[in-house]
## 1
Amino acid sequence: MSRFELTVWGARGSIPAPAAANQIYGSDTSCVELRCGDRLIFLDAGTGIVTAGRKLYEERVSDFDILFTHCHLDHIMGLPFLIPLYKDHVSARIFAGHFLDDTTTCQAMVEGFMCPPYFPVKPKQFAAKIDYRDFRPPQPLDLGDGILVKTFRLDHPNGAVGYRVEYDGRAICYITDTEHRPGTLDPALVEFIAGAEVMIYDSTYIDADFERFVGFGHSTWQQGVRLCRAAKVPQLLIYHHDVSRTDDWLEELAAEAAAEFPGAHVARTGLTIAV
Ligand SMILES: [Zn+2]
Ligand SMILES: [Zn+2]
């Protein structure tokens, strides 16, 4: 079977969380790397992509794709610091899906936040060959080499896109940022993730305190478990941790979640799962 694996480069949501109490699970925001055979795909470009980029540069990787879920800062703020984008031997395709609702294109979004006075370097200073691509979920994306990406509209302020990356008979789903309705399972989302090997899921909150955060656009690890059970997904990656979650808190969560659902793992920077 071909190599198909994910590596977490940033598991935090909303804002980086550097602190002595967060050394194990990490402080960087949303970024997951997928390796599909020789191909490399980034899911989001939060601060976690900065470390990934240094490694890519050392490995002389010259071609990759980036799929944005949406353009809230925690998912894009690493992009200006992604070293390979400043190298002229590199080619990258950057996809974004939800902006079309307000006619903002992927390229306009990147130009909009990499712009003085917010940031001194403009994307035109990228030396890499960059192809910005827009789509509208549920439009599927054929990335070539047998990689098919299905897309799903999530429930989040300003919109967000969930991804199902299929390769060599297996699937990895990336479902963040999204809010659920307590007591219900979205049948369309269950169908979207059905039979995947692993789902990475927005677990910013827990069921016990969710009521306080209705309307914030996030979900709970317990909802992730319910979705995995309904969709027969054996592994859940608990992701997009709130800034207040320390290593101790997340260790306790890991034990509690594994007791509830043996395939549950808590995402931390550096975690790799092969499927
Ligand atoms: Zn987020
Ligand atoms: Zn968001």
## 2
Amino acid sequence: MNSNLPDNTNFSRPFYNNVRNEEDVFKRCHQAKLPLILKGPTGCGKSRFVDAMAFDLKLPLITVACNEDTSATDLIGRFLIKGNETVWQDGPLTRAVRTGALLYLDEVVEAREDVIVLIHSLSDYRRILYIDALSEKIVAPNSFQLILSYNPGYQKSFKELKPSTKQRFVSIEFGYAKPDIEAKIIRAESELDEKRCRSLVSLANKIRSLHELSLAESVSTRLLVNAAILINSGLNEREACEVAISNALSDDQDVIRALNDLVSLYM
Ligand SMILES: Nc1ncnc2c1ncn2[C@@H]1O[C@H](COP(=O)(O)OP(=O)(O)O)[C@@H](O)[C@H]1O
Ligand SMILES: [Mg+2]
């Protein structure tokens, strides 16, 4: 779990290219105290988006990367033994509620069921956190916002958010940006020339259209940025795509070979 300090200790705005109207929607939801779900595949800009929103709203951001061990106690806090004393230590959720921060629970479906129960009372109009261990009830300040992310298409995961949970949230759908915007993002992140950024996007869209490759996840903007950074550093284009894209997408030698064949058509 990486909860800890606010993520937005940067002084300049994290680069985020608005793809549809998500920045406006986010800020309206924050203003209206509506909790949000960001849906979409890995590497399509969800975390970067939240970083940029925290920067714009001038609010601290607390991120928790959830996994199957993440429990309600991890988020609320626990008593710790220090010397011969027991002291209470707030978890990241309690800290976010107390300080009115943005709380980003990344991959929340991975977490234990008690986490989902916990966020129910925070995601309706009550915006209340009950801390049973302290017999405390905290009403979230106006600036607090709960943001969940999840990846509905992830084929290996059978986990889903229940409709009763989903319906408490406004959902923003993230996908791959249109080709010219995706090329612009890759260029901004890597400083690679426009022509080769466009070639990377064409390659990616070809791979994304080939369902017969049975990839668990398709090629993300993140992988394209990685390839572009390597190419811009002087690595041969095909080698960069092989290590940053083909090998990252599959462990199956036949699939890797098929991906490398596509790379040689486009790069
Ligand atoms: N709209 C965007 N604006 C800027 N960068 C983006 C955008 N979408 C994707 N990226 C790039 O892709 C990388 C991965 O995005 P990230 O936010 O970590 O994805 P996610 O959280 O959805 O897995 C970022 O580091 C950034 O380089
Ligand atoms: Mg992320």
